[in-house]
Amino acid sequence: MAPAVSPLGPRPLVFCGPSGSGKSTLIKQIMSDFKGVFGFSVSHTTRSPRPGEVDGKDYHYVSREIMEKGISNGEFIESATFSDNMYGTSKKAVEDVQRSNKICILDIDTQGVKLIKQTSLNPIFIFMKPPSMEVLEQRLRGRNTESEESLQKRLLIAKAEMEYGSEPCNFDIIIENDQLDKAYQELKEFLMPFIEEVKN
Ligand SMILES: Nc1ncnc2c1ncn2[C@@H]1O[C@H](COP(=O)(O)OP(=O)(O)OP(=O)(O)O)[C@@H](O)[C@H]1O
Ligand SMILES: Nc1nc2c(ncn2[C@@H]2O[C@H](COP(=O)(O)O)[C@@H](O)[C@H]2O)c(=O)[nH]1
């Protein structure tokens, strides 16, 4: 049975796309330009924090044991293993944002998207596409957050995610993130009706 999610507040947004496609960059920009409109669903993960990441803001960093316990207690809407680490969206993370009447933003992988589609959350699905696999690799390397092993795993997963992203009807919009400004304008234009609804 699909997990129950309370239909609170505005429709959430699900951002998906290969690691390095620019999801966090665009999410941060839209949240900063429209303060008070969006709230981020802070996921749980078993991966270690990167320099600059803040516990409770970027992720809830937890042990595998805690994560597994939470999942078996039914605390998560969805969860997945991505490149050897566990990630998951707790019901609380989404409900906390929805209760404040903000648009809840989820940043999740394609496994999570498939699971969310089986719930009553009814979000808008946005796929962030890099201009090419070569550019994706350059950007991931440039971010300097991954070991060579992790980078190769992420690039392998990216191929499958690109296929899922390009299948018709899996996403409400596919945004190619080539020039950052252009991708941001496209995102902003798409989201404007939802932003206006929350502001009014
Ligand atoms: N249009 C762009 N042009 C050049 N660099 C970009 C562009 N968009 C994002 N980047 C850079 O690419 C890197 C990856 O972006 P980002 O971290 O936002 O990706 P992500 O999709 O959130 O990745 P992950 O899923 O691993 O968290 C960052 O260093 C970011 O600054
Ligand atoms: N299914 C889920 N995927 C998630 C969640 N939080 C993040 N992610 C995705 O994991 C990868 C890797 O993220 P990173 O921060 O280690 O680079 C990326 O695709 C995220 O979108 C989640 O709660 N559930």
UniProtKB/TrEMBL annotation:
**Segments passing through the bilayer:** none
Q: What class of enzyme is it?
A: transferase
Q: Which GO terms describe its molecular function?
A: ATP binding; GMP kinase activity
Any Pfam family hit: Guanylate_kin
E.C. code: 2.7.4.8
Identify the keywords attached in UniProt to this record, alphabetized: ATP-binding, Cytoplasm, Kinase, Nucleotide-binding, Transferase
Q: Which residues form the signal peptide?
A: none
Q: Which Gene3D superfamilies match?
A: P-loop containing nucleotide triphosphate hydrolases (3.40.50.300)
Q: Which SMART domains match?
A: GuKc
* Homology family: Belongs to the guanylate kinase family.
**What name goes with this protein?**
Guanylate kinase
Q: Which taxonomic lineage does the organism of this UniProt entry have?
A: Eukaryota, Metazoa, Ecdysozoa, Arthropoda, Crustacea
